[in-house]
Design goal:
This protein is of the alpha/beta class. The chain contains 14 helices and 10 strands. The protein folds into 2 domains: 128 residues, 3-Layer(aba) Sandwich (Rossmann fold), CATH 3.40.50.2000; 185 residues, Rossmann fold (3-Layer(aba) Sandwich), CATH 3.40.50.2000. The protein is elongated.
């Protein structure tokens, strides 16, 4: 179905909209492998420059396994595209290691809406209801994980870290909000380790307003991803002025968002593969909540400075303008060459 949809979409775009209706386009953009066939067809059949936005790769999502067909489509689109736009410098390095043309790759960070994700906009009573829902008492600390429950997110390792956290900070509860194939593993691991009373789960996707209240209710947020080309959840937590503990080993864009030392520190870098390291990061935050509050404030300032959707849009538009200008210059050069050849023949 995906292949047929791509072919039909490209056919309608090229034959119907461009050639029949005579519509002009400055740039065509395609996202990930799902639209790569349409992108390749467009590149082969038209002169319109094509931008390929890469948010993740098949080898990364699957841990080096996955579909060879999908990997080939990603590769072919990357070779055909005039420009590749990806979401982090970590991702650009990974693409380059896999033989993609580095000179064509630009980085544009994702963003968040800091007006929507604003701790001052949350009703304290609604926030308290979230804590009550999970049985988090006023004298306890709420550690929040929010995301898909899949291996790349490191959630099982986070659960395995909890005994080490509780040994020093017994008044701590981990709240896991999300769905995925590791739901049963999370529950069974917590029970096997004897920490099920301190690990509270909500296995569902909730509306954005409720997610925002979860951030507001948390004392810190933990995202121990093993593979995460960017990771918007960390930006959401930062925008909500929360200190965060993030995976920073491997292809993980979190390390570009989170400053882990110095006066502008807003969180802690850990190895998402290591429960011991995850526990260390959580305990470091819990050891000084006044400092953690400052880290959260630093995080929100960092979002306002670098990670808004407006900034992402401006940077993306600039790339498109550069592509358009390059195409115009190349067309002008071709016309000049044709004119020169015509004069020579005369």
């Amino acid at each position: 179905d995906i292949f047929i949809y791509n072919i039909l979409s490209a056919t309608k775009f090229i034959n119907g909209i461009m050639r029949k209706e005579k519509c002009h386009f400055d740039v065509v953009c395609v996202h990930d492998w799902l639209s790569s066939i349409a992108g390749i067809i467009t590149k082969n059949e038209t002169e319109v420059p094509v931008a390929f936005h890469v948010h993740s790769t098949e080898w990364g999502r699957s841990g080096g396994k996955g579909s060879q067909v999908v990997s080939h489509l990603e590769w072919a689109m990357g070779q055909a595209a005039d420009r590749i736009v990806t979401v982090s410098h970590a991702m650009r390095e990974d693409l380059t290691r896999h033989g993609w043309p580095r000179s064509k790759i630009s980085v544009v960070w994702n963003g968040v809406d800091p007006e929507r994700y604003n701790p001052d906009s949350c009703n304290p009573k609604d926030v308290e209801k979230v804590r009550d829902k999970y049985g988090v008492r006023p004298d306890e600390r709420m550690v929040l994980f929010l995301g898909r429950l899949t291996w790349v997110k490191g959630v099982r390792n986070l659960v395995q870290a909890m005994p080490l956290v509780l040994k020093e900070y017994p008044k701590t509860k981990l709240v896991i909000l999300g769905k995925g194939e590791e739901q049963r593993d999370v529950v069974e691991t917590a029970a096997r380790l004897g920490v099920e009373s301190s690990v509270r789960c909500c296995f569902e996707f909730v509306p954005e307003e409720e997610r925002i209240l979860h951030y507001a209710a948390a004392d810190l947020c933990v995202f121990p991803s093993i593979y995460e080309p960017f990771g918007i959840v960390s930006l959401e937590a930062m925008s909500m002025a929360k200190p965060i503990v993030v995976g920073a080993k491997g292809v993980v864009g979190f390390k570009e968002q989170v400053i882990s030392s110095g006066p502008e520190q807003n969180g802690v870098h850990i190895d998402g593969n290591s429960p011991e390291d995850i526990a260390w990061g959580i305990k470091l935050v819990l050891s000084d909540m006044d400092r953690a509050k400052k880290w959260g404030e630093n995080g929100r300032r960092r979002v306002l400075q670098y990670f808004t959707w407006r900034k992402a849009a401006e940077q993306t538009l600039q790339i498109y303008k550069t592509m358009q200008q390059k195409e115009e210059n190349e067309n002008a050069a071709c016309l000049k060459m044709d004119l020169k050849e015509s004069l020579v023949r005369i």
